[in-house]
Amino acid sequence: MDSVFDKMTDSEKIVTEYLTELGLWWKYESPVFVYDEMERPRLWTPDFFIPKFGLYFEVCGSEDFDYQYREKIYNKNELCVIFVHCYKKEKAWKKYLVKRLEEINTDRQNIISKMDKSIL
Length: 120
Known about the structure:
By secondary structure, the chain is of the alpha+beta class. The chain has one domain: Endonuclease, Chain A (3-Layer(aba) Sandwich). The protein has helices at 10-21, 68-76, 90-119; strands spanning 27-28, 32-35, 41-44, 48-50, 55-60, 81-85. The strands form two sheets. Strands 1-4-5-6 form a four-stranded mixed sheet, sandwiched between helices. A two-stranded antiparallel sheet has the order 2-3. The longest helix is centred in the last third of the chain and has 30 residues, at 90-119. The model has no long low-confidence stretch (mean pLDDT 91).
């Protein structure tokens, strides 16, 4: 029987181990709708969706691959995707991931605070 792990890269498996350690449930390659740079509709699959956070992770397994195009399109479509650079030292990518989660949470809290103040 095939397993989702059979389709994952080594870097993606490392990230799943970390997410599992944290008790975070994930969905592998959950599709998202985007418009590309020419406004054509596309269906893309970031590596992971974390339902608890409502966020996507794109696992970067090599510095030889250019992830800038993907990041540009995700940003253009206002999709919150964290690029996890697993080719860096383990502590470095884990720290970066936590830092990005904190930044996103802070941004969301600031938006909610502004909304709350506008009601007063």
